[in-house]
């Protein structure tokens, strides 16, 4: 057997040499190389976050070693990931990647392309739509904010770009899927831009084989123009040996609407910053979060709903169920700027502890500078009520069936808000499969 | 042969507090028994102990279903064996639709050997049956889509319990104040429904403070419980006497049980 020299050559380390070699493989325009290089310099300057940082106090990454991974590249293997969100859904476009490299060309409905809608991987689209991409790329997410953000901005691959022009409605969903091989990296970047009055639905998901080690360091940037309407679903179901770091941010305009559904089921450790800026009057944003953890998983989600302009509504609901020794951290912040009068902000985090060893930390927060607003927040954490289990048992449910029903019911309040059936079903199925007996 | 549920010298404690102190009671399928007693006498405790509530510790005695002791069975095994209780205050299960809950319950109770994950009873068959039962109980069809007991009014909760009784068709049913908190019309409807569903068919153990339920479902036996013991058993005239005159005679006749009862009630109040 001949050694696969190609694969060896592609194993670029996160070093100056590796980064330089990586840039050479890309053949990107200068402006983009500058963006990457600035971030690489920043990455080198910054320390890894530690438990002295407020955001990382509860999230221990001392066992994370970047040197065990390589800059995303094709590894000559096919990964065993299975998309679930697109089952029975008529799609208008799709794209998938493995180890941060596109798996074949993206698919997109030509009728939509004729209307000026652009969809595909950033590398496919750079030549033709470079100016448009340049206008928006890394304008929403601050890629220099912390070491993971900088690492992403320097070495992301397999970017997804969706652009919907003014007043165009993309009715059927677009689907994206990323997976990894054992030991692989996924540094996917997502950029979605809806112009004024545009509408779209995007179903994004990621998973890989059970027990496959991996690293995801990603970013999502969303721009919804005035009167725009976006439904965005993001299902993270990595193996429980994947490190998951992500910065996700949406900026929404006047009279626009964003419904963002988050399924956080996978990974060994996840640290996610989800940020929505309401930057025009009367914008509305609804976030529906579902977390389910088991074994020794640690999921840390930090949300920020930033009201910059008056008369906006934001409604964030995160529900989590925790099994075994798993742990979640949810830190929510509603920030209201001085001019954002008549803000209606809501945030809630409810947790169901399915084991005496599980732990959920819930830290809601408000930072309000305007004086005429309504902001409410709340959180609950508790065990499954034995009286509910007993009641269901009296109706013939086994203890396990009773717990499954109660846990599924607990999430129903979030599912009821999700308007896409395939998403509701995929989430409900994934959760009910995981629920074991109560310990 | 008729099914028999027999309770022999049953002692039940919650924590280290003994609530039932030797209850004996035997019911045959088709019979209606009224269980009456003042607050704190142990009526609900007996019901919950028969169902196997984990906090109710049976320290002595037996509960026999056709001669087999069921004390070691899980509540779901008791339900599948044909024992049912309509709860005085049923808990809400948010997010679980009444119809889904009942379809699952009905399947399990009808196929006691069913393993988790095996097929539920066919949707069409189930829908037809639940619809007929809901019509009889004058329940809006919307009801099946609501979450179990979630935001139900008192009357809706009681009707939901009767609906479950109708669907599950147990051999023995304990009805714990299924008529309380209802207005006169609702009590009549509940009483009639229970009569149609179970009277002279199932073994009914009716716990009640009112006379309407027993008017529609005349008991073969009336048991008076006081201080955790059944102190007197009679026919339906005993129930009538207690409705008309209260527990004064019983208290005088059984002063020791009355004393125990008063103490446990005072303790319960102190806890509240």
Top keywords for this entry?
heterodimer; A: 439 residues; alpha/beta; 11-stranded mixed beta sheet; 10-stranded mixed beta sheet; 9 helices; disordered N terminus; B: alpha/beta; Rossmann fold; 6-stranded mixed beta sheet; 4-stranded antiparallel beta sheet; 12 strands
Please describe what this structure looks like.
The complex is a heterodimer of chains A (439) and B (272). With 439 residues, chain A is an alpha/beta fold. Chain A has nine helices and 21 strands. Chain A has helices spanning 5-10, 16-26, 30-45, 110-114, 122-136, 147-155, 386-394, 399-415, 421-434; strands spanning 93-98, 101-102, 107-108, 118-121, 157-164, 174-179, 184-186, 188-194, 199-207, 214-224, 229-237, 242-252, 257-264, 269-278, 284-293, 298-307, 313-322, 327-336, 344-353, 359-368, 374-383. In chain A, strands 1, 2, 3, 6, 9, 11, 13, 15, 17, 19 and 21 form an eleven-stranded mixed sheet that branches. In chain A, strands 4, 5, 7, 8, 10, 12, 14, 16, 18 and 20 form a ten-stranded mixed sheet that branches. In chain A, helix 3 (30-45) runs antiparallel to helix 6 (147-155) and helix 8 packs antiparallel against helix 9 (421-434). Chain A is globular, with a radius of gyration of 21 Å. Chain B has helices at residues 43-51, 75-80, 98-110, 123-136, 154-168, 184-198, 212-216, 236-245, 248-253, 255-271, and strands at 4-14, 17-28, 32-36, 57-65, 68-69, 83-86, 93-97, 147-148, 172-176, 203-207, 221-226, 229-234. Chain B has a single domain, classed as P-loop containing nucleotide triphosphate hydrolases (Rossmann fold). In chain B, strands 6-9-10-3-11-12 form a six-stranded mixed sheet, with helices on both faces. Chain B has a four-stranded antiparallel sheet with strand order 2-1-4-5, with helices on one face. Chain B contains ten helices and twelve strands. In chain B, helix 5 packs parallel to helix 6 (184-198). Chain B is an alpha/beta fold. In chain B, helix 6 links the parallel strand 9 and strand 10 (203-207). The termini of chain B are far apart. Chain B is 40% helix and 26% strand.
